[in-house]
């Protein structure tokens, strides 16, 4: 059958074949528009986004994956068409929630809008309020953008930000792919795999999303500027390990640490300009995010050791900037509780526990989503491992860059999110290694560990098999990512009614008063930073409904918001009984609260008298 | 900056030292990088002096940062 398809494709006139990829992509886009128009946000169930996406979405995604595969196997490769198809893939995976959900998802993005609002109004960050305000660079930039765009607040930026920032990653990713030493086809497939496997929801409106762009730009500039010098020859070596060990002899030499084992591909003037820009980006990063500068230290150190960085000063520069800001600018955060930063150092097993097993809780749908995420990531790393074994190269920079972010876990658990973050920092390189499993480069001073795979007498099946493998990998990962990335959307995304309810509560609360919700899954925090308290009695997902009710009655907040997102979180993760919110509402009404406003998905209760 | 920072006089007096050390390291690194990229030929003595200064100020920076952490952390 594969041969028949191939024969049919070959029989097509050349002019038609030229447009086949783009035509399939265009058809995919039409199906995406239909899928978005036909999806109804309020019908979302415990499986999240995927539960409201109809068949047109999946047909469209399959068409885009097929179009990408068709273009990937053309000779010569057409960069423009491949770029357009990757943009379509990004639209499917990251643009769909933005288009389907009525307002921005994730409470944190709304809180960040509130931080920006505070800076717009007061001209400075609020000390002693939140750890994130100790790294205010990103929020300050947001405030400048809000003022520059003539907006009243940053809410207008929130909803489409994930799609915007993911598309911003594309340029540095393409540079990394082109300069990383993998084949061109592996480079394009690696970029597609980055987007197909990026289920880690760190692209919402946040400093970390911006800093990830900084990270990619710096690595892309380093890769583009410096190429590895050929490895020194030690004469003919016999055996498997001996030549490989000899190749690593120079790892500890002074020339390696001084960056002299690289050659610059740019002119001196261009290199100086780019170094200057990188210095400014490093400064911005060190004062706008807690984690990225430290991963940059590790990543640039890895580039230096693998002959991809010619200026060791960059490693020291980011080190002093990151620790300098921590010591001076972020002292408001760590003074008096330094154990928050260094308390989890060297407790790797506890860190892994809080990052993996600590998340495997709640109902069947939630556990299934978390397990699929683990499987997806495991599958990608398995494929990357095969790529590592199959590829020859001039430098092992990709392997080291994929692994080195994990060293962060030795120092910090990062509130149980560290593992996700380090996987994300290694993802561009893991994707390229995984692509090398399908398109391994067989030339390079560092020889492949596995011999070249031969189809033997089935050689005629080789090309169709590789094509099919590329298609299945891109489509399979993209489908899985669509499912697991939006897997928590039943409670992490919000309806218009919930947004209106929060606004209503803010309009009726006075400075110094408190708004409470049960578990915090609300679009809250975008107003009243520093003047209105927003609290949640269920600090942990294991807090029982009864205890939540008692706590609310004890706190007696001015306004209480009950909503659909909170109800679904309670049912799916906390294990509350179905309809628990209705009984809690009755309890509150019986103890002095009245319903002041009600929407289909949210209710606001206020204290009488 | 919160009031707690000023609870320790020693930690407070370390602030300008951290800042000056940071600035010195950055300037010296910029000079070294500029010389390396442009291809300025330095004598071995000047090279050693430059590298020695960077190492010395960097160590000072690390010591003062650790001092601040341990004193007021």
Question: How is the topology of this model organized?
Answer:
The complex is a heterodimer of chains A (609) and B (73).
Chain A: H1 2-11, H2 14-38, H3 55-72, H4 79-100, H5 107-122, H6 137-148, H7 155-158, H8 161-179, H9 184-197, H10 207-225, E1 226-228, H11 241-247, H12 254-257, E2 262-264, H13 268-286, H14 292-305, H15 313-328, H16 331-334, H17 339-342, H18 348-355, H19 364-390, H20 397-403, H21 408-411, H22 418-438, H23 462-485, H24 489-492, H25 496-508, E3 514-517, E4 533-535, H26 545-555, E5 559-563, H27 564-574, H28 580-590, E6 593-598, E7 602-607
Parallel strand pairs in A: 3-4, 3-5
Antiparallel strand pairs in A: 1-2, 5-7, 6-7
Helix pairs in contact in A: 2-3, 2-4, 3-4, 3-23, 4-8, 4-9, 4-23, 5-6, 8-9, 8-10, 9-22, 9-23, 10-13, 10-14, 13-15, 14-15, 19-22, 19-23, 20-22, 26-28
Chain B: H1 9-38, H2 44-72
Helix pairs in contact in B: 1-2
Largest interface between protein chains, with number of residues from each side: A-B, 29 and 29 residues
Spell out the helices and strands of chain B N to C: HH
**Total of domains of chain B:** 1
- Give the overall form of chain A: globular
Number of helices of chain A: 28
The structural class of chain A is: mainly alpha
| Oligomer category | heterodimer
Q: Approximately how much helix is present in the residues of chain A?
A: 55-70%
End-to-end separation of chain B in angstroms reads 14 Å
Q: How many strands appear in the DSSP assignment of chain B?
A: 0
Strand content of chain A: under 5%
Strand percentage of chain B: under 5%
- List the strand order in the largest sheet of chain A: 4-3-5-7-6
């Amino acid at each position: 059958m594969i041969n028949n398809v191939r024969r049919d494709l070959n029989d097509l006139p050349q002019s038609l074949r030229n447009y086949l990829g783009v035509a399939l992509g265009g058809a995919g886009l039409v199906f995406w528009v239909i899928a978005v128009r036909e999806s109804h946000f309020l019908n979302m169930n415990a499986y999240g986004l995927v539960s409201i996406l109809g068949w047109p979405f999946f047909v469209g995604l399959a068409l885009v994956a097929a179009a990408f595969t068709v273009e990937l196997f053309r000779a010569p490769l057409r960069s423009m068409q491949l770029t357009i198809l990757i943009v379509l893939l990004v639209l499917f995976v990251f643009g769909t929630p933005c288009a389907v959900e009525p307002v921005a998802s994730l409470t944190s993005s709304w809180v960040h809008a509130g931080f920006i609002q505070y800076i717009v109004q007061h001209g400075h960050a609020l000390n002693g309020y939140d750890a994130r305000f100790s790294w205010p660079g990103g929020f300050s930039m947001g405030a400048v953008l809000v003022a520059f765009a003539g907006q009243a607040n940053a809410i207008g930026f929130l909803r489409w930000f994930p799609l915007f920032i993911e598309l911003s990653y594309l340029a540095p990713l393409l540079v990394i792919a082109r300069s990383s030493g993998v084949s061109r086809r592996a480079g394009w497939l690696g970029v597609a795999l980055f987007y197909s496997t990026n289920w880690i929801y760190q692209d919402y409106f946040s400093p970390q999303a911006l800093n990830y762009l900084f990270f990619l730009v710096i690595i892309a500039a380093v890769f583009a500027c410096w190429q590895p010098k050929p490895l020194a020859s030690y004469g003919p070596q016999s055996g498997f390990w001996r030549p490989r060990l000899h190749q690593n002899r120079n790892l500890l030499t002074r020339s390696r640490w001084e960056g002299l084992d690289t050659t610059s591909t740019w002119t001196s003037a261009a290199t100086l300009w780019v170094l200057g820009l990188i210095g400014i980006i490093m400064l911005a990063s060190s004062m706008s995010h807690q984690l990225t500068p430290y991963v940059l230290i590790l990543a640039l150190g890895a580039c230096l050791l693998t002959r991809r960085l010619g200026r060791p000063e960059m490693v020291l520069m980011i080190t002093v900037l990151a620790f300098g800001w921590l010591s001076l600018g972020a002292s408001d955060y760590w003074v008096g509780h330094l154990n928050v930063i260094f308390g989890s150092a060297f407790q790797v097993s506890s860190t892994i526990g809080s990052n993996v097993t600590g998340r495997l809780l709640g109902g069947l749908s939630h556990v299934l989503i978390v397990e699929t995420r683990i499987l997806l990531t495991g599958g990608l790393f398995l494929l990357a491992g095969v790529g590592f074994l199959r590829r020859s190269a001039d430098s092992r920079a990709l392997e080291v860059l994929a692994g080195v972010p994990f060293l962060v876990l030795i120092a910090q658990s990062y509130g149980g999110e560290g593992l996700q973050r380090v996987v994300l920092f290694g993802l561009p390189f893991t994707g390229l290694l995984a692509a090398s499993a399908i398109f391994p480069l067989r030339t390079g001073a560092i020889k492949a560990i596995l011999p070249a795979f031969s189809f033997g007498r089935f050689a005629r099946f080789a090309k169709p098999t590789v094509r099919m493998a590329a298609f299945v990998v891109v489509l399979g990962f993209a489908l899985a990512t669509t499912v697991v990335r939006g897997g928590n959307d039943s409670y992490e995304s919000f309806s218009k009614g919930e947004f209106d309810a929060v606004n209503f509560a803010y309009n009726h609360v006075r400075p110094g008063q408190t708004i409470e919700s049960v578990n915090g899954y609300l679009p809250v925090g975008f107003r009243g930073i520093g003047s209105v308290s927003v609290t949640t009695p269920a600090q942990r997902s294991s807090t029982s409904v009864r205890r939540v009710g008692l706590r609310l009655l004890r706190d007696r907040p001015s306004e209480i918001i009950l909503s659909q997102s909170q109800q679904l979180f309670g049912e799916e993760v906390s294990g509350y009984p179905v309809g628990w919110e209705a009984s809690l509402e009755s309890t509150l009404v019986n103890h002095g609260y009245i319903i002041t406003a009600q929407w289909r998905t949210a209710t606001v209760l206020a204290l009488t008298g | 900056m919160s009031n707690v920072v000023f609870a320790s006089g020693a930690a407070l007096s370390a602030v300008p030292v951290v800042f000056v050390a940071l600035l010195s390291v950055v300037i010296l690194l910029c000079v070294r990088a500029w010389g390396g990229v442009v291809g300025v030929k330095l004598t071995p003595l000047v090279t050693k002096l430059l590298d020695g200064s960077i190492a010395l100020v960097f160590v000072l920076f690390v010591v003062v940062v650790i001092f601040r952490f341990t004193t007021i952390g």
